[in-house]
Structures are given as C-alpha cells and as structure tokens.
Write a structure and sequence with these properties.
Two copies of one chain form a homodimer. In chain A, strands 3-2-1-4-5-6-14 form a seven-stranded parallel sheet, sandwiched between helices. A four-stranded mixed sheet of chain A has the order 8-9-10-11. By secondary structure, chain A is of the alpha/beta class. The longest helix of chain A is centred in the last third of the chain and has 21 residues, at 277-297. Helix content of chain A is 34%, strand content 27%. The two termini of chain A are 27 Å apart. Chains A and B meet through helix 1, helix 3, helix 4, strand 13 and helix 10 of A and helix 1, helix 3, helix 4, strand 13 and helix 10 of B.
C-alpha cells in the first residue's frame, strides 16, 4: 500500500515535491489542489488530477497526507491549522521567530481533529535544525554558527524589487570563507552579521531609473542590507534570464565544543550544496510525508517537528535493512 | 531527578564518558564497575565509588542506565546481552558486519528483562549512521561515501604491534583530498580503497630489528594494508610519546543525489574533526543515556539504535525550548 499524497499549492515547492514523490516507490501523488483555475495547470506527472482548493475537504478519505506547499508569510499561518483539522499534514513553515505561535495553533487544530501535523520541514528549519540539536546534545559546552549560501534569498530579492525603478532583482547570500574557516577551526569567534555573510545583488533597472539612488536605497535598507557588505550590479533582462534563473542554495551548521578534563576541541559540521533549493526542500517534504503517515499509524496526534520523529520513520527501508546497510 | 548512570569498564572510553557526564547537569555518575582491583582505580570525579564488576547485578535499583564501555571484539558481544537483561544499557558496538547478530542477542535479553538497550552509539556507527539515514531518506537517487580521518586507527596500530621486532606503533588513516573533492562536487566517482585513504604508520623498532622486513610485512599485510598506499616511518620511543600520544580522529559522510525532472545535483555532507576520539564518543554515550532513560519511561523495551530515537530525547531541553532556539 503506497502512501497517498496530495499537494496543496503548485509553485516551485509544490513542483519540487511532485518530482520527489515520483522518485519514491512507496509514495503516490493522488492530486494537486490549487487556488488558480485547475484547467490552467499542467502537471508533470501523467494522470494526476488538479482540483480547486475548495474541494479538498470532501476528499479526506482519498488522501493519507496533505503537503502544504504555500508560503510562510501569509499562506501557511492560515492553511496549516485549517487543514490539520482534517488531514495529516506536512508544511515547510520557515519564519523562525513565529514557530512557537504556528506550533500552538496547529497543535490545537490537529489534536481536535485527531490528526498529525509535521511543521517546519525543509532544510532550515529542518535538516539544519536536526544538525543543531544532535550537536548540542553531544557537545553541551560549545557554540553554534549557521552560514547560508551561496544561494538565492527570495525575501531579499523581493525587497529589492519593491524599490521604485527596479524591474527585476536577484540577491545571493554569500558566506564569508574567512569566518567559516575560523568557526571550523574551533575558535568560537564572536561574529557580526557583516562578518558572516556578503549580499550580492543583481538588478535590472528601468531605462530612465536613477541607478545611484537604487544602489543607495538597497545598501541602506534596514535589517535586509544595512548590516551587511552589499554589492549591487546592474544587468540587462537578458543577462538576468541567462545567468540567474537557477535556484541554488546551501550552507553549513557548525558547532564546536569542549570535551574531557583538558578541554579538547571537537567540531561538528553539516553542510548542503544545492543546485535546486525548491526541489531539495520538496524532497524533504516527501520523506516527511512518509514519516507522518507512520506517526498516524502509531496513533500519534497533534503538532510535531522533525525533533519528534524517529529517523527510521523517514525511510522506506525496514529496521533490519537500515541496521545492516546504513548503521 | 537526575539520571543515575554507572560506567562498566574504565579505559579511554569510560574515562571519556565520565568527563561527558560531568558536563551535563541532568546526569549523575553513581559508580564505576571494573574487572580490575577497584582499589587500583582513581576516578577523576570526587566521591564516586568503584565496584568490582561482580557487584553490578546487586545494584539494579540504584542505577537508571548502565554505560558499557568495553571493546567490540570480545567484551560487548558478551556484556551487552548479559547486562541488558537487568539494566537499561548503552553500548558503542562498532563491528559493522556483526551488528545484526549483536542486535538479535541483545534484543532477546532486553525484552526478557523488560529493559531498553541502545547499541552502536558513537560516531561511526552513530552520528555518521544518522547522517547516512537522513541523506538516503531525502535523496533516494544517490550515492554515499564515508571518509575516515585523519585519525588514529586502534585496530591497524595493534596489527603492526603484532609484527616481530615492533615495540610500538601508531597508524593514522588519512582521507585523500582529491577523492573527497570529487565526491563533494557531486561526481559520484567509483573509488577503490586505495583511492579513498592513505595509511601512515609510525613504528618504534627493536634495536636489532630488520626494518626493511618490518616495512615489507606492514605494506603487504592482507586487508589491513595491502589494498592501500602505506607509508612507514621509523621513530624513537621518545618521538612516539612526544608526537603521537593524542587520539584525534574524524571524517565525513557525503551523499549526492538527483532531484527534479532535470536531474539537479544536491550534496549533503556531515563531518567531524575530533581532538579526542574517546572523549567525543563518551559524549555521545552520555546523550544516549539520557535518551534511554526517556525511552524506558515511555515504556519501550528491547534493543534499539539511534535510528529509533526521537532526536529531542537526546537533549535535556524541553520541546518548547528546542523549537524556540534550535529549530
């Protein structure tokens, strides 16, 4: 019996999840729900129907797990509690500061509905969170650092696009190698935002725009750019399409800590290098769908995170197989 | 209420675990069991008693978790099933090929005694196994490689010491950078043992020993050395004590895999750089003791591995705290 999965929201992440499900023999995509006109969507997987989102709640008996592939800003805070009342759900909610509130709202809804909701699944939060947790558990006397990139930050790209005279923009977050090396060496340095990351901006300006003003507005933008060394490069729309259409990302979680009576230094590092951020995140969601189905079969209810999931439940392989080949 | 832990076996690993427990506010070392004369041992922790190993089974009500810190070759295959019948136990059994048999024997004993046994805890098997499992679950279409070192291999050092004319020896396993870089780049190369690791040997020879013969015997030793490029350097006992008394180790688990319909390459890497292998392994055992106590309180019995442990149970921190600060 395959786990029957539906996707709600067919943007980059939804398409990444679709492709990930296709690579898993034990998972089956049974439908996509959209707020757009279903006839306007063409899925990559043959034979999978597209439904209007309003139809979801009439199809609870045909779906084991619903993957919520909307955005964290406005979609998921509403969608996850709403759908967790009727489905086992997985989301990739990634606004770190709002996770406690999102957890509470989702937990209440999932418990009321007798369902399991696994939130904040992806790589950060997600696999990076797991790396931080394991490293903290093993090295209680230590210090973490997380570096992101080189990769496209959607939030920073959007912030630039809102500036008058900007037609398109792409922002790369770039970790500063010297800082990574100091952390990797176990130095536990005190690092500012500026010490850790550069921000590289590629901007297509309107023909009559004041480029000096745009550059100044970017570099002085509070929170997004003012605390960082930022470069701004104006390019053509053709260059943007040719050189910046990918969605690479990645980064590293490092923790160094002390052991023994003589304070030996131990360093743990977890790194990702991703050619496609949404396809990789979709792959994490697919594995999480498998785990949620298992949690539901074990009788669990309420809101969970990857911190609560026995790692084996993310895998289609048997315990015996895992012990023989991966332990 | 602290988790009351006893250590059985006071070698390098037992001492590493003792130091790790001292760094955890929620864990308490209540005793050490030894096969040696208890009067011959001086613990680092003040006030902790040392008992003859025969006394362990009369003290089950004073101990929440027993850490088995013996060796994998002859100690643990006997000790883990034996003590799992009477205690919740943790071991670091690391003979990969024999894990299924060790699991079966321990599982039967632990289930009969209503206890939990968490086996093969350390970094490989252990944290490296977790890295392999998560990476395989997320990237089913991919390839793993594990590199070890630069670090001291006890087994290879012992093998050299058994050669006639050798007074002392230390063998470092050294990953070959070019191979690591190819895997890190997502190439998925086919690599032989020789492509992946060098073996660096430091040998103290008896004054009258034939060094050419010793070097030849090392380099041609089946399985241990013949499949590798091996260097042999003869040094004095003083140099051995001065330059090679540490126990550093480490390594990397890498998996690259494909996502999406256009086969984008995603690479996951988990690395350790350890100044003290036994202290780090002891730190993993301490975190595992916490998890085993939790598993026992949840009513679980039988043999488990880290694959079965919800990550949060390795941490002393509450779910709320973990979600707020590490997710």
């Amino acid at each position: 019996m395959k786990t029957r999965i539906a996707i709600l929201g067919y943007g980059n992440l939804g398409r990444g999840a679709e492709a990930a499900i296709a690579r898993c023999d034990d998972l089956e995509l049974v439908g996509v729900f959209t707020r757009r006109d279903p006839a306007s969507l063409t899925l990559h997987t043959p034979g999978v129907p597209v439904y209007p989102v309003e139809q979801a709640e009439q199809m609870t008996d045909q779906i084991d797990v619903l993957l919520l592939c909307g955005g964290s800003a406005t979609d998921l805070p509403v969608q996850t509690p709403k759908y967790a009342a009727a489905f086992h759900v997985v989301d990739s909610f990634d606004t770190h500061a709002k996770i406690p509130a999102h957890f509470a709202a989702t937990d209440a809804a999932a418990k009321a509905g007798g369902k399991v909701a696994l939130i904040s699944c992806g790589w950060d939060p997600g696999l990076f969170s797991l790396a931080r947790l394991y490293a903290n558990a093993v090295l209680p006397d230590g210090k973490d650092e997380t570096f992101w990139g080189r990769g496209v930050s959607q939030g920073h790209s959007d912030a630039i696009r809102r500036i008058a005279g900007v037609l398109d923009a792409r922002q790369y977050t770039v970790p500063i190698d010297a800082a990574v090396e100091r952390v990797r060496a176990g130095e536990q340095p005190v690092l500012t935002a500026r010490d850790k990351h550069l921000r590289e901006c590629y901007v297509v300006a309107a023909p009559d725009a004041d480029k000096a003003r745009i550059e100044r507005e970017i570099k002085t933008m509070p929170y997004y750019f003012d605390e960082y060394d930022t470069t701004v490069t104006f390019i053509t729309a053709e260059e943007m399409a040719r050189d910046h259409s990918g969605m690479p990302h990645g980064g590293s979680v490092l923790r160094s800590g002390k052991t023994g009576w003589d304070d030996h230094t131990e360093t743990i590092e977890f790194s990702l290098k991703l050619e496609s951020n949404p396809e990789f995140t979709g792959s994490v969601l697919a594995a999480c769908a498998r785990a949620v189905h298992r949690m539901a079969r074990e009788g669990m209810t309420g809101c969970k995170t990857l911190f609560d999931v026995p790692p084996a439940w993310l895998s289609p392989r048997s315990g015996e197989d895992l012990r023989s080949h991966l332990l």
